[in-house]
Structures are given as structure tokens and as C-alpha cells.
Amino acid sequence: MPDTIRAFIAFELPRTILSSMKEIQDRLKNFGFRIKWVPSENIHLTLKFLGNINTSQVEKIASAMARSTSGAGTMDLVVKGIGVFPDIKRPRVLWAGIAGRLDLLHGLKKRLEEELFREDFPKETRAFQSHLTLGRFKGRTSMETLQHAMDTFKDFRSDVFTVRELYLIKSELKPTGAVYTPLLKIPMRV
After folding, report:
1. Residue 87 has what DSSP assignment?
2. Three-class SS of residue 5?
3. Domain boundaries defined on the chain
4. Which residues pair with 170 in a beta bridge?
5. 149, 137 in Cβ contact below 8 A?
6. Of 91, 124, 125, 189, which residue is most buried, by most CB within 10 angstroms?
7. pTM value?
8. Which of 48, 16, 68 is nearest to 171 (CA)?
9. What is the pLDDT of residues 83-139, one digit of tens each?
10. How far apart are CA 7 and CA 52, in angstroms?
């Protein structure tokens, strides 16, 4: 393993949810957006992007993850609607929203940030917005068409899914796209 890897902390999603995301992506393609779609098998719920880390830090990250999940228990979530970052006038990222036990999700995110900070990782400066990235825009797009797409999917709700493990995932950027490899998983404990 190289000394430095690109990594993030996330929840992996059940196959049923990934299948629903693929269906949404396929339906959104009919709107004609110029988007680089995230392969459905790569869609995940990121809690913390770590960027380039030294492999010697993996043990500290695992400890911080374990401390943050202790007492968290599992949580039920649902995918709901779609939106864009940063805004509809300058969309760069197309995403599906997360609903359900957001109080638990945001509490876990806060504990994770604090535990990682104790291990010398910088805190995220932006507010946490739970989402699943579906694709990235490759140029300008019609605001009217984008609004129509968002209106079309505003009532979309997936089945409820339960998150049970938090993963540290290695991300390798390749010409064919990102390759994600789970390095470790930490169970959500009561």
C-alpha cells in the first residue's frame, strides 16, 4: 500500500437503494443534461471527506470512528427528492436528498468531526448537508429544465433503509472514474 491514499468516511447503501438511484439517473437522462453520472455502485452517503492521508493515520481514524459510533445505534433513513449544489443558477452537483432520522445522522456527524479533530484532522467549515451525489454538471444548463426535473422528483421517496456500519473508503482516481475500496468498517453500537 502506498504511504498516501485519498480517503473518506461514509455509509454504504443497500442494493435496493442503489437500484432506485440508478432508475432516477436513467429517468433524469431524458432531460438532456450534460452530466457525468456517478456509477450507481459508487453512490454512498459521505460523512467526512479526508482527502489525502498517510496510511499511518488509518489506525487513528479507526479509533475516532469507533468512539463516534459508540452509543449511536443504527438509524433508519430514506432518500427523498433531488437538488443541486451550489444553487439552481450555477449547478455543479446533482444530488438526491436524505430524510428520516436526521437528528441521529447529524449527531453522529458532529461526534465524528470532534473525534477526528482530537486526532489532528481539520473540522469541516461548511454546514453538513446529507445527500447522495448522482452526477456532476459538465457546463451550463437550462434553469427551467432543471427546475422541471426537480419538480418531477420532489415527491420521490425510497424505501426506508437502515445504516449499520460506518466505512473508511479509499478512493483511487483513474481515467475511467473513481474506484472505491472499503478499508475498514465500524459497526454502529448501542
Report:
1. -
2. strand
3. 4-187
4. 7, 181
5. no
6. 91
7. 0.94
8. 48
9. 999 999 999 999 999 999 999 999 999 999 999 999 999 999 999 999 999 999 998
10. 6
What backbone phi and psi angles, to 5 degrees, belong to 165? -140, 145
What gap in Å lies between CA 74 and CA 111, rounded to an integer? 15
**Within a 10 A sphere around the Cβ of 108, how many other Cβ atoms?**
22
* Alpha helices for the chain (secondary structure H): 15-29, 58-69, 102-118, 143-152
45-54: strand order across its sheet: 45-54, 4-11, 165-174, 177-187
The answer to whether the CB of 34 falls within 8 A of the CB of 137 is yes
Q: Is the pLDDT of residue 1 over 70?
A: no
Give the type of residue at 162: T
Residues in the chain: 190
Cell triple for 54: 498517510
What grid cell was written down for 158?
425510497
Beta strand ranges found along the chain (DSSP E): 4-11, 35-37, 45-54, 75-85, 93-100, 131-137, 161-163, 165-174, 177-187
What is the maximal distance between C-alpha atoms in the chain? 49
Return the closest-CA partner of residue 82 out of 38, 34, 146. Answer: 146
Take residue 90 and report the three cell numbers written for it: 450555477
